[in-house]
Design brief:
By secondary structure, the protein is mainly alpha-helical. A 4-stranded antiparallel beta sheet has the order 2-1-3-4. Helix 4 packs antiparallel against helix 5, helix 5 runs antiparallel to helix 6 and helix 7 packs parallel to helix 14. The radius of gyration is 23 Å and the shape is globular.
Amino acid sequence: MLSESENTIAENWKFPKIWATFLLLLLAFTAPLWFSGDQTLLVPMLGSGDSMPVWAPPAISVSLCGAAVAVILLRTTGRRLWWLIAALLAVLFVLDQHRMQPWAYQTAIYATAFASMKPLAARRWLVPMATSIYVYSSLGKFDYQFVHTIGVDFLETLTLPIGGLPDDLEISARTKIALLFPATELAIGILLIPGITRPAAGGAAMLMHASLIGILGPWGLNHSAGVLIWNLLLIVQAWFLFVRPGNTSEREDPEHEPGRPPRYRGATLARVLIVSAIVMPILERRGYWDHWPSWALYSPHNSRLDVQIHRSGIELLTADVSRFVQPDSDGDGWHSLSLDRWSLQTRNVPIYPQARYQLGLAVTLAESRQIDDQIRGRLRGVAERRSGKRTEKLLLGRTELRQATKQYWLLPRFSNQ
């Protein structure tokens, strides 16, 4: 017979179905990323995008939607469907790194827990992973780049209803006040760890995400719809994982009764993935783990590639790419190519914030349009936390750009022709 807390969680464990519902919403609002056959922004982790049928990613994405719909409609928990969702997302990530949006990466890992664990066990394992998001996200913002850019933008937008910041407030004061954003987030993350403070911290997390929706919405900084929907999903997550009551001790979980074998397979794999997701972000600033899977959110310290096209090469671009070429600001004949605008306007998502991906994109563009010396890129490393300084390397022409890709593991091997 189940205890009262077990009954509470089992009866109200609608979290997987709600997550599947939000997955459909996110896929719909970022549809070009998943369903378009356009390969101009495609950078696979392995192999070549040219060898992949144009219809393959949309077909896989349709299957992903079908699995999510089935999870919502079925009266059962749909464990096999969650395995399918995790597998389809993994394939889509390999086919194009751009699809590894934070919410999609989070969904792939959560899917393994939904598929392999009872509600109590799943809740117990997802709580530390969800908590780690707040901790790592906050630590990424105790950073020169954040407090001098996005942090100040957040602050100015948040204070608009009361007339904004005073005009005579010095930048040094603004940056110090901007530190309140990561300080608050870190406090929430720390207070989510002990069970006794978790419900209150969960409520604070819900308020924080609500305020972020206000800051990032069309009435504020006007970020993409996917970002707003994910913040709404995180409000729901905070309610289910942190605020709602429920004792998840091993004593009350049938999965951990002495001498009783596990009923579901794959729990070990889910645990390994969750532990990896919690531990590996430690290596983010050293370049061994990507920024988004490390929850470096709204944090501009990420590595990147600034791409420029010479005026003699603009005519080689297709019209759908050349519209993102910016004016020549200094008269040297080189025009910046806005990867951010290109991604937001054609795929409805921010550009994947990783120098590796952006370098692969530049080489793919150069090779597809036969651009040689008319393209260059400034490869910029992760910004130092205190000074904001970065290492920089200027790459001239397609050959040097292609040569630079060899330092990365997760990039296709580009030809030498």
